[in-house]
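Hey team,

Sharing the Transketolase run so nobody has to redo it. Sequence (270 residues) first:
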Amino acid sequence: MDIQTLEKYARQVRRDIIIMTAAAGAGHPGGSLSSTEAMVALYFDVMNVDPKDDKNPDRDRFVLSKGHSAPALYGTLCERGFFGREEFDHFRQLHGILQGHPDTKKCPGVDASTGSLGQGISIAVGMALGAKHTGKKCHVYTIIGDGESQEGLVWEASMAAAHYKLDNLTVILDHNGLQIDGTNDEVMSLGDIKAKALAFGYDVIEVADGNDMKQVVDALHVPACPGKPRYIILNTLKGKGVSFMEGQVGWHGKAPNAEQAAQALKELEG
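Structure output:
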């Protein structure tokens, strides 16, 4: 798919994020907005998925390890045709299919229920290992957060990915530098994350601007390195696309009010 069309979808997904979180009065807009390009590129240009056959055993898999960024996933799944926009009215509502974190039992297109940080990448490693054992050609993608990368599970999963030579696994780091309590460096510095990923056995690609669609797409289309899992560092901006949210840690888990939502949607008209 051409870059301009992907960017158009990304603008709409950003609007969907604002619409959902504002209507619910809750949610995580900051990290959803920073990961939008990655979500859209995966579902519209990279992964082998079909909304009309969402349980096909040969499909590619996606796991949102940073499960609190569910609004970005829901916006993308809706635009891709997995469900209708009317579901946005029930975001974070009892019995709705769009829960605060992805629920594979409720929401079409969701391959794993996530929320507890570090567990998503572990699930993705298990999926990739399972595909190897059963001879499936599917590829597994997971998006993790930089704050999430302070969890030991992330590195245990990474050791397993390298040990089992999971070249059918791509780990994508949404590196926006902010988490709920402040900057990564203030809470617990990740140090040289590229050097760490290389040391854990990944084939590493770093993307200078993880909110530039072409750079993201180009990175995702680099051929796999035989015998090595892939680790893509996307240097992104928290709150990307909404001026008063960009680079502001306060928008990690706070919904916009009606006035703020109106301003954000106006900015995202494109």
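DSSP finds ten helices and seven strands in the chain.

Ping me if you want the raw files.
A.
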